[in-house]
Amino acid sequence: MKEGTGAAPRQLVTFKTGEYSFGIDVLEVQEVLRHQHMTPVPLATSEVRGLINLRGHIVTAVGMRERLGLDSALDVREQMNLIVSLKDGAASLVVDSVGDVITLEPERYRPRPSTLAAPLREMVTGVYQLDKGLLLHIDAEAACKVCEEEVRG
Amino acid sequence: MSEQDELLNDFLVESKENLDHLDEELLALEGSPEDSDLINAIFRRLHTIKGVCGFLELKKLESVSHAGETLLGALRANELKVTDHIITLLLTLCDAIRTIVTCIEETKGEGTQSFEQLAAELLAAAKPAEQDAAPKKELSLDEEFELILAQREAAESGGEPLEAKPEEPKPAPTPARTEPPQEQPEQASRAAPQESSLRVDVQLLDHLMNLAGELVLARNQILQTTKSLSDMNFRAITQRLNLVTSELQEGVMKTRMQPINTVWGKFPRVVRDLAIQCKKQVRLEMWGKETELDKTLIEAIKDPLTHIVRNSIDHGIEVPEKRAAVGKEAEGCITMSAFQEGGYVVIEISDDGAGLNTEKIRDRALQRGLISREKAQAMSEADVHRLIFAPGFSTADTVTNLSGRGVGMDVVKSSVEKIGGQVDISSRAGQGSTIRLKIPLTLAIIPALLLSCASQRFAVPQSAIMELVQLSATEKSGLLSWIGDYPFYKLRGDLLPLLYLSRQLAVESHPREDAGDKVIVVLDVDGCRFGVVVDEVHDTEEIVVKPLGRQLGNLAVYAGATILGDGQIALILDPVVLAREAKVEQREAVEVRAAATAAASLGEGTGQLLIVQVGSEVRAAIPLDCVRRLEEFSLRDVECVGKSAVIQYRGSILQLVDVAGTIGMRSEPWTSGNVVVVGSGDALVGLQVQGILDVSCELSAVKPVTGKPGITSYGVIQGKVIALLDVAHLLSHGLEATDSRVGFEQAGV
Known about the structure:
Strand content of chain B: 25-35%
Largest sheet of chain B: 6 strands, mixed
Number of strands of chain B: 30
Largest sheet of chain A: 6 strands, mixed
Number of helices of chain B: 24
Oligomer: heterodimer
Largest interface: A-B, 32 and 28 residues
Shape of chain A: globular
Order of helices and strands of chain A: EEEEEHEEEEHEEH
Strand content of chain A: over 45%
Number of strands of chain A: 11
Distance between the termini of chain A: 29 Å
Shape of chain B: globular
Strand order of the largest sheet of chain B: 10-14-15-13-12-11
């Protein structure tokens, strides 16, 4: 699917982390949860916040702040879990706050600026120009990709 | 899928089953050639296969199975006697059909292989009967019964006239005549099983299995929650839920269970063929065929079992002459037995052959450099036998087409371990060997021990746990010793390498304030024992293994995660990976610390001594404070420069000192690469010793000696006199030698 090329408007779930506003395709979002108890995973990269028991399924939580190299949140209890469905199961993106679902016209869409720096460049696919700022459209798959190695068969 | 395809699929599945039974029945027939029931059964099976070929237009299959049917027809009519030749022919026929069936499965076509030769042989075998005997009119009881059966069916289906029947036993000259009447017995044989069983997609069963697992988790959580409630009514309901869930889980597990005979069934055939090929006489006995195992596990042990049986025949059982010479029956015997033991199914394959040749294995392992000479001598017989599981190992002098390439037992071992099982071998020279497989009943739910470290809970599969040892704070000084940076625990005279889980996982350990004690969980992986130090151990629990997400794919140390009764998540530790890391740590871990740090961690003057074997008769002790590391090099890596032996070690060169020679004893040839690294900073020297024995601090009857360079005193440890080494002397000796080496290089080059 090529962003912005289709004529149909897109529905995005908006959320904030640090100073950034992000949007993620509504179909990729499974549910939104308040703070969940997390089981830490020793030796995991700092982006992995822990494991969540999501009604019997074990879901890895990836901290958006950690992913972007920002300072940890002051109060993690205020953070939200955005459960996204990926190719091989679900994962949780831990974000500062979750906003509305908004519908955006393709005219507002611009491809990713080439000057974007590392962690953002990996996950941002494009930018929507809103009245009060920019909304970064991100790819859930890329946002949750925190390790290169695939040791497990 | 079109109707035709569906039909074909059913046919393939059914044919495979029929073929498996055919093998079994043919072999049974070989044992009791007079059994007409068996002949009938075989005939019907073959006919079932042939029958479907007709309308699926499988020409080759039809013609070859028709030929077989003709032969069987002759047998059935008592025109022919069952001979070995006929059995072999019929078994070949089974193989041919199997080949075609596999071919159809893979390519949708019958393949290019021609089976005309076989068909001709089958028909030829049926011939003599045709010539000398007229079709017998008297029918056996069975045939009469069958005739009645056929009559009734014919009447029901409104099919073939009655008169066709008596002709059937005759060798069928044309397909046109034989086909219609034979349709009937087939239906009779198929009707019964269909009523009591049905085919279910394995995926559906897997799904049910998962759901049952989830239900078990939910049940556990409910039970935990209701513990604190006082509502008796509600508690009664949960109790009921508890029971039903357990039963459901058991039931679902059972649906996936198959008797082990589903794989064993083919072994009589394998054994027979191999025995003929090797010109040996082998009898196969099977016990506990009905023992049940999870389907996926059954699949997984198929190849390992075949390999073991092949090995037993090829290497284990001797040729009849040899057996007679040592006073054994000419016919060798392979016994396969299966039984349940705890949560495992144990499968034993024993033969009464020659047993393993311990010396030969030892020599071969030495030749291939699998073990060092020193180690080879120290190994017990059982340990030597276990070498056959080492990759690339084979003692066979010649490579036969059955075995001997050395790819085998290691594959057996790895595939059994992959499903959480274990393999072991025991053998007695001249009496045979037994290979023992221990297979878990199921994979999805495993018993595990819950433990905690840094106030987090982890699970370790129960199968790897040998024992739990309390590591009390007060005892620490006596039994816990450090060699360099590596902790060891003295457990009943053995040195158990320790691994601190908190260190391993880089978490801070917070033992509870009231209990300064920790627990050592002793794990056994591949016969290698090590201890994992944890803060606390809890219960054992049946846990459902759940995979971890891709985000954690780089962490091999976790085999998965599970949800505990209280809804919390516990990570499952993989003992195999822990073992690997324990070894890594021993070999190349942290930087060698300065002597001061080491001394501090030891506690100055603990007086602990490392006891080493210097010569075959001489033991020596080295103050543990001086020891940096224990290494085991391969002798091939040792290089000689002038008079000194050196080894490349951590990017620099380590001078090796022959301790025996230095302390004025006869220098013995080095048999192993056991080296005690002593010294500090860059001034490291390797003391070459024959073996590392123990750590002890109970030195008594000390008697200082003078005039012996390298020895400070003698003493008694564990009832034996030992020489206490003067490390300072050995160091300086080593360093002098280094100078001479440099001198040599300058002069020589």
